[in-house]
Amino acid sequence: MSLDFLVQLALALLGAYIAAFWLALVVWTYRDIRLRSRDPFVQVLSALIVLIFGPGGLLVYFLLRPPESLAEAFQRSLAEEALMREVEDQEACPTCKRHLERDFLLCPDCQTQIRKLCLHCGRALNLKWKVCPYCAAEQ
Ligand SMILES: [Zn+2]
Ligand SMILES: [Zn+2]
């Protein structure tokens, strides 16, 4: 075996390794961006940047990619919505601002009337409602 052959073999292996590494970077980037963006243009562009510039392109991708994945964004919007609903659910007495439960008829502190009972089915109704939404009886 000549030294030339060994050098050539080493270079070929190195080349194959770099090519595989390069390709792995592109595949990784494409998978990563698909979790972060639904826009096909953004997905292809991100993979192309890494394909052309390799590790340098990956660095650019890291700097520019959306900070959170679609799953994370979805989770966050759910949490925010739940928080909003909780705030909306909390009712306060118009007179004394005491916190009220959803089905209170009167404020337990100042006895302001909050709700009335349906004349027909007996469920708690908003004072302004002219008809019961549960049994359709007029009030
Ligand atoms: Zn009150
Ligand atoms: Zn009713």
| Number of contiguous helices | 4
Element order: H for helix, E for strand: HHHHEEEE
Tally of discrete structural domains: 2
Overall geometry: rod-shaped
SS strand fraction: 5-15%
| Total beta-strand segments | 4
Biggest sheet, open or closed, and with what strands and sense? 2 strands, antiparallel
Notes on the protein architecture:
It contains four helices and four strands; from the N terminus they run H-H-H-H-E-E-E-E. It has two domains: 3-71, no CATH class; 91-139, no CATH class. The strands form two sheets. A two-stranded antiparallel ribbon has the order 1-2. A two-stranded antiparallel sheet has the order 3-4. Helix 2 (40-53) runs antiparallel to helix 3. The protein is mainly α and 139 residues long. 56% of the residues lie in helices and 7% in strands. The chain has helices at 3-36, 40-53, 55-64, 70-89; strands spanning 91-92, 99-100, 115-117, 124-126. Strand 1 and strand 2 form a beta hairpin. Bound molecules: zinc ion (2 copies). One zinc ion binds next to loops. One zinc ion is lined by residues 93, 95-96, 98, 107, 109-110, 112.
In short:
It contains four helices and four strands, in the order ααααββββ. The chain has 139 residues and is mainly alpha-helical.
